[in-house]
Design goal:
about 290 residues; alpha+beta; 5 helices; rod-shaped
Length: about 290
C-alpha cells in the first residue's frame, strides 16, 4: 500500500495482526457446568414436590384422610392389640403443637355380633398394665394389600374391667363411633375389645391417616426448586456468554512498517552545472 503525505510516500511493507490476549475459558466452563448441576437439583425438587401435591389431592377422602378399605379384625380372646407404636422422641415439638404431624382415624363397625365394640388408643405401658393376665392377641404384622394379619397370643385367665370406664385412653370409640386421635410423642398401642370385656371380638374397621405435613413438604420442595431453577438459568446464561466471548477473534490491523521520502526511493538525476569558457564563447558542460 502506498500513500502520499506532504511530499512523503508511505509504504506498508508488513501486515501485523493485532489481537487481545486469549481469554481464559476455565471460568465460563465451570459456570456452565455448575448451572447444569443446579438445574438437575431443581428438576428433582420440583418433581418431588409435584408428586406430593398429586398424592395430597388425589389420594385422600373429603376430610383429607388417606383411608384403607374396611377389613375384619377378630380374635377369640378378650382383646386384640397392636404392638407398641413408637412415635420418635427426637421429632420437633412444634410438629405436635398442631395437626401438622398428623391424625389417625379408625372407623369401627361390629361384624356379625350384637355386642357393641370398643376401640381405644393409649400409652403402651398403660395398656400392658390394664390387660395384665388377660388372654389377648397382639398384631405382629399388618398388610393392607392384600389384607393379612399376623398375630401372637398371650395367655391369661383374668377378666378385664369395662374398657370405657378407664381414664388412661388418649382417644376411644364406643358402639361404632369413629375414633380420631392427634398423634403425639411416645409409645402407643391400639386396643379392640367388646364393650363389656367378653371374649370373641369381631369388628370391621377402616383405618385412615391425615398428614398435612405432606402438603407442606410439597411446598418446601417446590419453592426451593423454582429458586434453584432460576439460579441455574442465570449460571448457564453467564457461562455461555463467557464461552462466546472467549471464542471471538479480533480483527487484523495494518501498521505502517516504514515511511521513506519519495526522493529517497526514486532519486532524480540533477542537471550538470554549466561553466562558461571565455576563449571560445561557449559554455562547457561539466560532466
Amino acid at each position: 500500500m502506498v500513500g502520499q503525505f506532504g511530499g512523503m510516500t508511505t509504504y506498508a511493507t508488513n501486515i501485523t495482526p493485532f489481537a487481545a490476549p486469549t481469554r481464559d475459558r476455565t471460568g465460563p466452563i465451570l459456570t456452565t457446568v455448575t448451572g447444569g448441576v443446579v438445574a438437575f437439583l431443581a428438576i428433582v425438587l420440583i418433581a418431588a414436590g409435584a408428586a406430593l401435591f398429586w398424592v395430597s389431592e388425589h389420594k385422600t377422602d373429603a376430610n383429607g384422610y388417606y383411608t384403607s378399605a374396611s377389613h375384619t379384625y377378630s380374635t377369640p380372646t378378650r382383646a386384640l392389640t397392636t404392638q407398641s407404636l413408637d412415635v420418635q422422641q427426637d421429632v420437633p415439638d412444634w410438629l405436635f403443637s398442631t395437626d401438622t404431624f398428623g391424625r389417625v382415624r379408625i372407623d369401627p363397625r361390629s361384624a356379625g355380633s350384637a355386642k357393641p365394640a370398643f376401640v381405644g388408643i393409649a400409652r403402651t405401658q398403660d395398656v400392658n398394665r390394664y390387660l395384665d393376665q388377660v388372654q389377648r392377641e397382639e398384631i405382629a404384622d399388618l398388610d393392607f394389600d392384600p389384607f393379612k394379619l399376623d398375630k401372637t397370643r398371650h395367655a391369661g385367665e383374668a377378666r378385664p374391667a369395662m374398657p370405657a370406664a378407664q381414664t388412661f385412653w388418649a382417644a376411644s370409640s364406643v358402639d361404632g363411633h369413629p375414633l380420631d386421635w392427634n398423634v403425639r410423642k411416645g409409645e402407643w398401642s391400639v386396643v379392640m375389645m367388646n364393650a363389656d370385656g367378653s371374649p370373641g371380638v369381631s369388628l370391621d374397621a377402616s383405618v385412615g391417616a391425615k398428614a398435612p405435613i405432606i402438603g407442606e413438604l410439597a411446598w418446601w420442595l417446590t419453592i426451593p426448586g423454582v429458586g434453584l431453577g432460576l439460579l441455574a438459568l442465570v449460571l448457564v446464561t453467564v457461562g455461555a456468554r463467557g464461552l462466546t466471548r472467549a471464542g471471538a477473534q479480533q480483527p487484523a490491523v495494518l501498521t505502517p512498517a516504514s515511511t521513506l521520502s519519495s526522493a529517497a526511493r526514486s532519486p532524480k538525476r540533477l542537471p550538470s552545472p554549466r561553466v562558461p569558457i571565455a576563449s571560445s564563447g561557449e559554455e562547457e558542460v561539466m560532466p
